[in-house]
Amino acid sequence: MRQWGSFVNHNGMSIFYAMIPRDVQLYYGNSRAEPVNGMQWMAFESKHAQLFVKREIMGSFAGEIPRDGNSSMGKVQYLQEEVEYANSSEKLQERVGGWLHEYRTTKTLRVLYLDGMSAANAEKGTLDLQDIVLLNQESEESMISDMDRATRMCSFSGPRATEISTA
To answer: Could you name the domain of life of the organism this protein comes from (predicted)?
Structure first.
């Protein structure tokens, strides 16, 4: 997995079937305490998932689930930090937070792996591999949602697609 090569040349074209072994820790970050249900992205590093914890800000999460408790599917941790917003000359401080979900694979998972920036959501051609080559969709067409794109890509795996997309 070439982090710097994909960073510098962000229109990378690496895509392949891969396997994630049993007992690998995966992370997911968002503003909700509920466990992931169905197909969703997962990160191999907690710091990557933490970026998405702060992106979705929705009021207070206190009392929804114990703050370092366990859900039925994995460990869920509440993350909270002070954030400063610059509003003209005055600064407003606010506490924002979200949930970092931790999962561990219980069996080997077959996945479709998109290397580095070739999976990034950007208008600089990073989705060309997925949209044009894999899905036969012209770049002038409107962008499809991540969930639609993932569902269409999982269809390559035939009847085993549901096994690949859930963990």
So the answer is: Eukaryota
Output Rg (C-alpha) for the chain, integer angstroms: 18
The CA-to-CA distance between both ends of the chain, in Å, stands at 22
Sign of CA pseudo-dihedral 48, 49, 53, 55: positive
Angle made by CA atoms 48, 142, 121, in degrees to the nearest 5? 15
Write the DSSP symbol of residue 70: B
Write the pLDDT tens digit of every residue in 133-143.
Answer: 777 776 555 56
Overall size of the chain counted in residues: 167
Listed ranges 10-14, 41-45, 94-98, 143-147; the one with the highest mean pLDDT: 41-45
Give the sheet arrangement for strand 75-87, strand by strand: 25-30, 90-104, 75-87
Looking at the 3D structure of the chain, how many domains does it have? 1
- State residue 146 phi and psi, 5-degree precision: -60, -40
Q: In one letter, which amino acid is 150?
A: A
| Best CA proximity match to 96, nearest among 138, 57, 52 | 57
Name the nearest CA neighbour of 128 among 117, 111, 76.
117
